Amino acid sequence: xxxxxxxxxxxxxxxxxxxxxxxxxxxxxxxxxxxxxxxxxxxxxxxxxxxxxxxxxxxxxxxxxxxxxxxxxxxxxxxxxxxxxxxxxxxxxxxxxxxxxxxxxxxxxxxxxxxxxxxxxxxxxxxxxxxxxxxxxxxxxxxxxxxxxxxxxxxxxxxxxxxxxxxxxxxxxxxxxxxxxxxxxxxxxxxxxxxxxxxxxxxxxxxxxxxxxxxxxxxxxxxxxxxxxxxxxxxxxxxxxxxxxxxxxxxxxxx
Length: 255
Known about the structure:
There is one protein chain. The chain is built from seven helices and three strands; from the N terminus they run E-H-E-E-H-H-H-H-H-H. It is mostly helical and 255 residues long.
């Protein structure tokens, strides 16, 4: 299908869909640019089509010039474009990633404050091993959230009517994967290592590390992996349900 662009003199020929998408991605045209197609009987703004707008240039639907002043109207248009939901979530993902990366340092501080390094060598050795496990998990969590911060901005497009639900769905899915892997992996290895090293004194180590919620005794070794797995499953199920509802609603609107 051929497309025509009603925007300045340099776009005076017919374009393919891929070519129009390239112009959008490289911000040579913005979401307010009007385009027409062979199968349409009118001109439509890019934001009202099914093109991918994740990299599109935002411009308010207004007669004001490019250096428009802030107003209620432009703010509401910014919300309707979808960036109001997607971009802040991307920033939040980055913040969570950094917090995860710093978490082992917090655990180390709690251990110093609780006098962990005054304990016998056996207990100290168990703590060091457990801290290495947590540091590895923190690095994994950082990569997970940092990777997803680029994907959440594609959870919805400016042409969709329902744009908040896909973002919330993406957040629920990512949170579930993060918590499930953290609980299942770190919880299991922490409980197993602690009880192999120091037996019943493992509960004491958990409290000194500031992770007393893992101090469930030997039961932790058996139950925590199950908790982690079920966290991932239920979070994914809720996210897929929300995603399906918004996808059906958006598709129905465009028909």
